[in-house]
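sorry for the late reply, my laptop died twice this morning and i had to redo everyting from scratch. anyway the thing you sent over, i finally got around to it. pasting the sequence first so we're on the same page, its 726 residues, then the predicted structure underneath. double check i copied it right bc i was rushing
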Amino acid sequence: MINSKSLHNYLKQYFGFSTFKGNQEEIILNVLNDNDTFVLMPTGGGKSLCYQLPAVIRGGTAIVISPLIALMKNQVDAMRNFSTEDNVAHFLNSSLTKSAITKVKEDVLAGITKLLYVAPESLTKEENIKFLRKVNISFYAIDEAHCISEWGHDFRPEYRKIRPIIDVIGRAPIIALTATATQKVQHDIQKNLGILGAHIFKSSFNRPNLYYDVRPKLNAAKEIIKYIKENSGKSGIIYCLSRKKVEELAQILLVNGIKALPYHAGMDSATRSGNQDKFLMEEADVIVATIAFGMGIDKPDVRFVIHYDIPKSLEGYYQETGRAGRDGREGRCITYYSYDDIQKLEKFMQGKPINEQEIGKQLLLETASYAESSICRRKLLLHYFGEEYKPGNCEACDNCLHPKKEFEGKDYVVKILKAILEVKEKFKADHIARILAGKTNSAIKSYQHHKLEIFGSGDEKDEKFWNMVVRQSLIARLVVKEIENYGLLKLTEKGHEFIANPESYMLSEDHDYSGGTDTEGLYGSSTAAVDEELFSILKDLRRTISKQKDVPPFVIFQDPSLEDMAIQYPVTVEELQNVSGVGVGKAHRYGEEFIEIIKRYVEEKEITRPQDLVVKSVVNKSGLKVYIIKRIDNKRTLDDIADARGLDMPALLTEIETIVHSGTRLNLSYYIDMVVDDEHQQDIFAYFREEAESDSLEEALVELGDEYEEEEIRLVRIKFLSEMGN
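ok and here's the structure:
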């Protein structure tokens, strides 16, 4: 029997450490006593040691099931560095040659190898199952165990097959380890692995050194460049959801003098691993990556993690932000958020099985709630992982440092609790919010909930408000979400007591990010820090020119362009072309009068122009622009152009609109005549010529009515802007 003293001796002998971190010692003793073990330990907490030390102490070989080949190689290299023998650890996967596989198997059967790393895909191969049945297995370690759960942020179907294969190979104790798991995911993991009776070890999820900040997504690229330059020389990771965005952002950082490299699964493995190594070796300061980057990356001095796009789940967000400040020092976690991004992610789910869509939407709802909430972000995150954060203010998040005004919410909370009981605790937050706000949908009608007395009893507030009340009731533990049917709301004993004896309860309104969308993507301009006086002067000038030219004001320059002029203060035609939505054509056609008025204004007010905020553009955008212009000149259909460049039609129309707004004249009549009938063309053109106060698509859809499709309005609007303005 191994006691605490001998375990410390082994720790010093094999790994050179004198003390254990957190609850490592208890976990290791539990594994050595042949108990099934579930370990929930945040990034940087020392999960690997929990199976590495018992593996080298015990007889036999520990089978470590790990999801990534690169991660396995790192782990094996690390183990070999601790040992005098290289064959103390091996991995078995598709990257090995036949002779290398033979060598691995010989070492394992000889009992020399203490840890054998395998991917779940390798585990399912018949030849490997036959081999492993001959091995003296000390225990199984399932790393990144959240991959088992469909509710986890990195679900992998092959992980669901692990337990049946273990039963075929031969049962031994199991240790499952993960850095992120809600109670729902934890239950899923234990159930699937058949270890519901496992000893559970949870470490605190609180990372006191991390600062959490969610910002509206208004020209995030410009803000990111400014932030990185203010923190020159510090290491950072920027996460984007798409490979295309990774490439674009990495390039725009480079042309602005920042040592940045891209990383995503679409790159060839040599380039990808080369970029990772350059980041680890500090040859690059910033890595711009998809979520493919970071699993098992042990770089302690990452000082900032920026999410250009909101992640798909809070587990993903926590894991990715957890890569900042692993040495316990500074770590800033900045996320750019727009509700538009949530809607895009929901669209990506279409076509997936209904069950996957439902799970994905629930996870997205949690993420949106976190972003929009005005209560302590640390409290929210820890609550999500089943941990209570008792201090009222963490003083290390944007919401605590800049709190929103609170108001008495007792009556609203009681209303929510009663509504949950009224529908027998069988519905989710959005359904409850809809009932109180008096909004119907198919679910409300099919359950006859529009006939309940409480339906519409809170219609003075909208669904967003009632969802906020639900969320804050969850934090207060008046309500819980059921684990088996995740998302169904149930009252706790505390919730029942609150209904019986309501007491004062302060609430705070959510943030409103509905207007915060980076419409110009990486190349656009911020509406922040607009000089309102100059903006007003420029609008007056635009109005005067529009009367002279007899065209609507928005045909000359749109509001975002004027706003950008009131930020950048361009005083030459060349500088004006750096303004959002202004191309060479518009700069020369209308620019002189605007430049003159800005120049006078700058001199009179003695303004120092913020040239540091001017972001240099990159060429890939203009490459697409040239491609589109040439194809339209050759009268190619827009469907052909979209297919050739991997765009959907709305995305292509957005590109064409940008071209036209910048002052380039395009003749789309050949295509419009094919897809929009003459009468509709005349009506839409006349609307923009005579009635429209702006080029707003939403206003046009309302004014023109249901018989007009969004796409045909956009097409004719392009024709109008091109003919009238360019």
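The longest strand covers residues 210-216.
thats about all i looked at so far, will dig more tmrw
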